[in-house]
Every structure is written in C-alpha cells, then in structure tokens.
Amino acid sequence: MKIGIHMRKLLALLLALLLVSCNVPTETPQDTSTTEAPSTTAPAAQGLSIITDGTANYRIVRGEKAPEKMTDAAISVRKMISDATGVTPEISTDWVKKGSEHDHTSLEILVGPTDYSESTEALKDVPYGDYIITQVGNKIVINAWSAEALTKACNAFRTLVRDHRENDDLILPADLRVTGTGNKLVNQLPNCDSGTMSSIYDAGNDTWLVILEDTTPDDYSAYQQKLASAGYTLYAENDITDNHFATYINDEYTLNVGYYAYEKAIRATVEPRNALPPRAEDNSYEKKVQPCVAQFGLEYLGSEGDTTLANGQSEAFQLADGSYIVVDGGFPRDIDAKQLYEFMYDNAPDPNNITIAAWIITHAHGDHSGAFKTFTQTYASKVKLELMICNFPSKTAKAEGGLSDGPDADQIPNLVSSYPGAKFINAHAGQVYHLRDAKVEILYTLESFAPGVLDQYNTCSLIFKVELGGQSFLMLGDATQDACQIAYNMYGDYLKSDFLQVAHHGFGVGSTIYTGVTSVYSTAAAPVILWPCADRAFPTMYDRAPSRHLIELDSTKEIFVAGTRVIRLLLPYTAGTSGQESILK
User: Which one of 174, 263, 361, 538 has the largest count of C-beta atoms within 10 Å of its C-beta?
Assistant: First the structure.
C-alpha cells in the first residue's frame, strides 16, 4: 500500500513531536529544608576608629591590681590620644562587680596586664622580653611581659598615633599588629608552655629572672627539653629534696633554672655567658694538709680603737691541698686584711704560693665585704684568687626598697680584675661548686625572695652549705627572717649540719616574727656554733629570742664567739675537743 505525500508529512511531524516530548526533563521540587543561605562577606574594615568627629569610640582600661609602672602606662596612652586629637578618652580599671563578667563587645583599649582574656591572648607566643600592640576581638591590646617592655610598647603606640592621625581623627590600621623587644637578654629565655608568668625581675649584675607560677615537676622537665631544643646544652644538675636545679649554656648565655617545690614555681635566670661553677669531673688536687675551719675575731682593742664594733664576719676554710675558701673577710680595715693574710701565710704548705680557691661574699655590707678592698690593695700580688662568688641586688631592687646599702657591690667586680686569671661568678640557688675536697652548695640568693620588696638589705645575704672533712657547715651570713623562712620552706631537714654560723651576729633578723630563723636553727641541730660577734656584745645577743632558742637547743654543744681571737678547728671536729676558748654546755 502506498502512502501519500501529505500522509508522510503528517507522520513525520507526529514523530518529531513525540521525540521532543521524550527529552523534556521532569521538574523536581527543591528541598528548602537542607539548603544553606547564600554566604556574604562583610566589607573590609577601613580601620579601627579610635577618635572620629570629636568623639572617643574606645575607652582605656588598666589593671586594677597591676604594678604602678604599668598603670602609669595607661595614663600615658590616654594623654597621647588627647594631645593628638583634643579628645580625652574615658579611663577605668578592669574591676567588675562580684559575679559579673567583662563585656567583650565594647570597644576598649587594654593597656598592660588586665583580667580580660584578650590581654592574655595577645601575649600568646610573644617572647618574654617583648611587647605587642594588636586587635583581639573588639579590644585593642597594648601589653608586654614587663614594665620595661610596656614602656617601649607605649613609645611604639605614640608612633602609631602620630602616623595615623588625620585632622583630629585617629584611625589605626584594621590589621593592627606591632611587636618589639623590650629586653634582649630576657628574650633568650624560651617561653614555657605551662604555668603563669608572674614576674620578670632585674636580678642585678646583668642578670634577669623570670618566675613561672602554677607549675609541676613535669612542667619543669618539659621546659628542660624545650631549652635543649632551643640549642642550650646542659652543664650541671642538682636535686635537693623535691627541688630541682640545672644550668644550661650556649656560646653567649647561661641559664639557671630551678623548680621550687614549696611554691610550685619555676624560676629561671638568664645572663651573659661567663665563668661557671667547677664540676666534680673537672676537680683534681693533691692532698697536703688536714682540712680546717677558722673564725676570725674582729673586736680589736689595739691602736685602731675599734672597741665600739660588735659585729663583722670573717671565716676561712683550708682545703686538703692547702688552698682556701674565704667567707666575707670583715671590715675595710688594714688590720682585718692583715689578720686574714697572716693566717693563710702561716698555714700554707708553701707561703710563697697562697691560693684562694674561692672568696665568697655573703652580701655587700661593710663589716662583711669591706676587707676585700683593703686586702686587694695590699695582698693581691701575694696570693692567687681563682673565683669570686657573690650575688648582689640590682640598683632597681634597692631603689624600690628605699635602700642605699651595699656600696661595695659596685666595686667588687672591678677589684677582682686585680687578680690575674680570677673569675667572677654570680651565684644562684642550687649551684654546686666542687673545690678540691670541698663542696659548696648555694641554697638561697635574693632571686629566691624576688619579687618581694628588698626593704632590708640583709635579705639579699647568701645562705649556703659547705661540706669539708666529712662535716657540713650551714652558713647564714646576715640572713633575715624572710630569707631563713624561704630556706626552711625549700629544704626542711636537708639543713641538718655539723656546724652553724649564727644569722646576723645574733642581732635581730629584720622582723618581730622569727619562726623562720628558729626553724632553721632547730632543723640544722648543729652541735658546734660559730658566732661572729664581739665578746662584749654577746650578752646582748644572748638575750634576743632567736639566740636564746639556739642556745637552749639540746643539739647545741659548743659555741665559739669570735671576740678578739682566731679559732682554728681541724676537721673532722668533735665538740669540746679543741682546747680553745668556747662556751660548752
């Protein structure tokens, strides 16, 4: 059957329509419950508008409990803004009513340490010696680890104000972040990943101390690993009861770190690389004499007319090779220097080769450190001095405590240079000095008291232990109640000793409270007492409460009052066997 042309055209049209209808997609309803709203990006901020059109948009906040130097920084920032724009922002503290929280939405400039989390967050990863100016949320944070660095942060902020003032408006960059170094020495201490940095302290002699609170022994171990990762090499370690100490070095710096168990704190010092304590493996000697200890009486009744003196301290230890450790030395008088030199000359194996292995000065009061100057003037060419060991406070610490004591501290480092080859060492708690057959262990320095206010110079007196001839000596210098309390808190029964040197000649200990001193006396329980004072002063000293406590202890067997004599005791020594003038119980 033939199909006509018109019929073929009609069939073709129907077929085309059918194909088109098969290719039309089926419409599916959209599931609006799972569709996200289109994202939008806010326009980039033009800047941080501190002052605009004569209005302060930010207020300034300082820490209610911040140190005065840091609260002053907030006032200076306010003045910078006011001087530049003619508008004075409101200023307040971070105090909030109990039960309330800080407003994190308000626009504020936080200056120095505050209770705001933004202040802490800004310092995250900032080295201890540095400062930062940055934006955290709605806050502009000007913060630093120390008052010194904060001052430099304020100077940097002054530059920002100068560079970003337009007419009377002040608009800082939206990407605000300015950092800088406040203390290049502190910068050498890697940040600890644990605890709270509570203080950066000028420890004197170009040494800085960082105190980290709320730490554990594990935190201390982790910090040691961090020091090693930072390129420092472990030089020496020492553990005393639950306290841990270590010295780390590199080519330029020395770090001394310690974990103080009683306060759960890490204390770390940094100083330029200098002399280091001799270690046991570096120590060698030939035995020539029996070791001994000597206490020198400084109450002279001769031509110099010094009968008014009641105090002063001078001791010497003679080591097995015939060398000496000198402690203090006495007043800046020729007679004190002469007495010390003549003792060393008379007892040296070779009087023409006298060696002082170490001279330890407990603190820079004239009745202790003064003799070093007169000794140096007369005898520096006749003896060999190897080490000078001391720890003197900074001028800043003395100024904050209102003190002018300790002028010898400025002279002694220079005087050491009068002895060819002699080295000056800044002592730190936990250090051990191996000197021939003697071991000297530093237990306390002012760094253990910091950041307390040094309102009594004797608080900076060293406390240390000497082991020689199989016996131990607890040397207190002029330690105060505060110093002794810290030593007792740290070491407890470790203070047990065969000999005890009475603190501050038996005078008062800087406080009407003296439990720290009596606790040290009781714990030391030393049979033999070295009492550096005049005979005529002793009855007065005897009447003071800490002294009475010491004298009445059952452990006290013999007391040597310095008076006008030189007491020399061969070691080891048993109380009551010397045949020399003493007070026996």
Answer: 361
What is the pairing mode between strands 59-62 and 139-144?
unpaired
CA neighbours within 13 Å on the CB side: how many for 88?
5
- Could you give the dihedral angle defined by the CA atoms of residues 148, 150, 151 and 152, in that order, rounded to the nearest 10 degrees? 90
Pull the structure tokens for residue 423.
């080295």
Contact by Cβ (8 Å): 121, 152? no
Between 481-491 and 515-524, two packed helices, what is the crossing angle to 10 degrees? Answer: 50
What is the DSSP annotation of 478-512? T--HHHHHHHHHHHGGGG--SEEEPGGGGS--SSS
Please name the residues in contact with 493: beta carbons below 8 A apart, sequence gap of 6 or more: 241, 523
What percent of the chain has a predicted confidence (pLDDT) above 70? 91
Domains contained in the chain, CATH given: 48-181 (3.30.379.10), 186-272 (3.30.160), 290-571 (3.60.15.10)
Give pLDDT tens digits for 400-440.
999 987 777 889 989 999 999 999 999 999 999 999 999 99
What secondary structure does DSSP assign to 375-424, as a single string?
HHHHHTTTEEE-EEEE----HHHHHHTT----THHHHHHHHHTTSTT-EE
For residue 137, which of 160, 109, 173, 179 has the smallest C-alpha distance? Answer: 109
Structure tokens at 263: 């306060």
What is the helix (H) or strand (E) element at residue 69, kind and residue range? helix 68-85
- What SS3 state is found at 552? helix
Question: Tokens 């420092």 correspond to what residue?
Answer: 232
Give the predicted TM-score (pTM) of the model.
Answer: 0.88
Buried b (16+ CB within 10 A) or exposed e, 410-435: eebeebbeebeebbbbbbbbbbbbbb
Task: Give 536's contacts (C-beta < 8 A, 6+ positions apart).
Answer: 299, 307, 310
Q: How far is CA 420 from CA 86, 207, 306, 322, 426, in A?
A: 63, 24, 33, 20, 19
Q: Is residue 174 exposed (0-12), middle (13-18) or buried (19+ Cβ within 10 Å)?
A: exposed
